[in-house]
Amino acid sequence: MKIIKVSNSTEMAKTAGEMIAEKVRANPEIVLGLATGGTPIGTYQYLIEDHKENGTSYSKASSVNLDEYIGLPKTDPNSYYFFMKTNLFDHLDISPERTFIPDGTADDLEAECTNYEKRIAELGGVDLQLLGIGRNGHIAFNEPGTSFDSRTQIVSLAEETITDNARFFSSPEEVPTKAISMGIATILESKEIILLANGKSKAEALHSLIKGEVTEDFPASALQRHGNVTIIADEDALSLINDI
Ligand code: F6R
Asked: Which of 17, 72, 157, 214 can bridge 76 by disulfide, Cβ–Cβ 3.0-4.6 Å?
């Protein structure tokens, strides 16, 4: 794993944004794997600015998102569909028909999961996957204990995740308890992965990811088995790693 240490979240966003924009310019038909949450927002802002100022085009690109809450309609400001539309897609020239997010309101959620995997395969797989990390080591919504062989599936959110994500809702009771999440095996098939982390609250998770054992009890440790992972993290998030 390559580790890029930056001074703060602004630098993290710029470093990641530059890398992503460069890859989009080099491969206009790129399939991007995208994340939601607080961590990537600055990176998305960078991509929007870059699109406006430098004309980096997404007109031939596709995207697949990692996850979506079950039960939230697309119009709900807390749905990941809404998040992606407002924080990124509406401000780029990406075609809405080529942006894919699991539908957490599908009548047949199992079929939705199977179809999502098929969709990723039809796209030829993910070229560049952007990830955040949960304090408990989750990537996407693959909580501790998830099999490394997992594919897109219905998952239950861990208590810690519900508590962490309650900041986006009016109360913890409003946080959905289930989601559709891309699996670990799906994520590991991405050709390249960039994981972002900032802030002291991620320091223990990053320490386990970089120094810990590979175990399903800590889902992000699966990334140690991937040959092309870059971690871009700030000093706070890397504060427990002494040798970089
Ligand atoms: C989001 C996702 C999650 C987040 C993680 C960190 O699509 O898959 O794994 O990346 O929960 O969230 P933040 O960035 O809010 O700290």
From this structure: 72
